Amino acid sequence: METPKNPASIDQRIEEGLARLAAVIRADDWNRAKAAGINPTQQGVLDYLRGRPEGTGLTDIAVHLLISQPTATDSVAALERKGLVARRASDTDRRAVRVLLTEAGVALLEGQRGEGGMARIAVDRLDEAGKAELLLTVVKLIKTLQDLGAVPVQRMCATCRHFAPFVHPDGDKPHHCHYVDAAFGQREIRIDCHEHETADPASRAATWEVFQRG
């Protein structure tokens, strides 16, 4: 087989690869949601609420899932009818409504923990070094999307005021989390941390510079 004289650019080939991975992940989400008797958007709402026991607003749900406000409202209403979420008035603003998981919602998510789709199986077959490298690449892509305004600031280590990258000489655990006062390694970097506190823009920029250079 001859090598094409004008192959697609590497950027295009990476985008094609990501699109195929996204298609598999969407199929996995459909299967997981179908087994629970909900649709993938409703599943996304539950997944988003999993790490937010204090609840969150409908606008935050819409922004995080990249869906419209009416779609978020309809999805929450459907989940509420199924007894998986509840709406409560905010403690600080009685006009605002927060959406929280119910006990049934938590139980459903707990029951899904052992379920792994095709994407999970593929990741599991990478060696430990490959997983750490892939995680770092994912963090970099999300950070760029944040900078472009395509996604809101995520609860990643790289955007947290507690994160200090490459402050320890230990190659296995070079980072430090001031929240728990402990060192940790590249493979422990988090995408969505419950204890995340967003750093101010200047600190985020300085932290990111050290993190990606290291």
Which features would summarize this protein structure in a list?
5 strands; mainly alpha; single chain; 214 residues; 3-stranded antiparallel sheet; 8% strand; Arc Repressor Mutant, subunit A
Would you write up a description of this structure?
The protein has helices at 10-36, 40-50, 58-65, 69-81, 103-112, 118-124, 128-147, 201-213; strands spanning 85-89, 97-101, 163-164, 175-177, 182-184. With 214 residues, it is mainly alpha-helical. The chain has a three-stranded antiparallel β-sheet, with no helix packed on it. Strands 1-2 form a two-stranded antiparallel sheet. A hairpin with a 7-residue loop joins strand 1 (85-89) and strand 2. Helix 3 packs across helix 4 (69-81). The longest helix has 27 residues, at 10-36. The model has no long low-confidence stretch (mean pLDDT 92).
